[in-house]
């Protein structure tokens, strides 16, 4: 029973998946779920789910946090999640930062370019 009881400290990080990547795994051939920002590959669990495969397939590729919690799954069920853990949802903020880091200089360059053009045209007309 070694290693049990450390479930609160699941390794942070791990591979990151975007919600788009998860959304592609929405069939019985490949079924991924997001629960509390973590990604679970439940493909081999679908048929074994005590609550039926229907409900899992319905949520496949999506964020099932709410439905998972609404059912009031037992601690056993929470424990089972660990077996299917494959990674985390890519933090939204990162892609946000990625875009703004590019957009701001791009916008700045555009403004400077326009100002320069106006300045040049001004020079020509006078
Ligand atoms: C990997 C994710 C999941 C695991 C490991 C899991 C596990 C389990 C387990 C072990 C049970 C038996 C009862 C219990 O121990 O609480 C159960 C029941 C159930 N589950 Fe899940 N479940 C998962 C996801 C979901 C999702 C996403 C839904 C809803 C869309 C769902 C709906 C249900 C329902 C309706 C039952 C029957 C509850 C009852 O009979 O009272 N489960 N699940």
UniProtKB/TrEMBL annotation:
Gene3D superfamilies in UniProt: Cytochrome b5-like heme/steroid binding domain (3.10.120.10)
Domain (Cytochrome b5 heme-binding): residue spans on this chain: 14-90
Keywords, alphabetical: Electron transport, Heme, Iron, Membrane, Metal-binding, Transmembrane, Transmembrane helix, Transport
Highest taxon of the lineage: Eukaryota
GO CC annotation terms, alphabetical: mitochondrial outer membrane
Family matches, as SUPFAM superfamilies: Cytochrome b5-like heme/steroid binding domain
Major site of localization recorded for this protein: membrane
Subcellular location: Membrane
GO molecular function, one term: heme binding
Family: Belongs to the cytochrome b5 family.
Record's protein name: Cytochrome b5 type B
Organism: Sphenodon punctatus (Tuatara)
């Amino acid at each position: 029973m070694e290693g049990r009881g450390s479930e609160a400290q699941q390794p942070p990080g791990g591979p990151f998946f975007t919600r788009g990547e998860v959304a592609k795994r929405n069939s019985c051939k490949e079924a991924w779920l997001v629960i509390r920002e973590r990604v679970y590959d439940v493909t081999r669990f679908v048929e074994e789910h005590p609550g039926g495969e229907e409900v899992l397939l319905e949520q496949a590729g999506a964020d099932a946090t709410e439905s998972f919690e609404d059912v009031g799954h037992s601690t056993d069920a929470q424990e089972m999640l660990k077996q299917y853990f494959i990674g985390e949802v890519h933090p939204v903020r990162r892609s946000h930062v990625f875009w703004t880091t590019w957009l701001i200089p791009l916008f700045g360059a555009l403004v400077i370019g326009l100002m320069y053009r106006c300045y040049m045209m001004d020079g020509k007309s006078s």
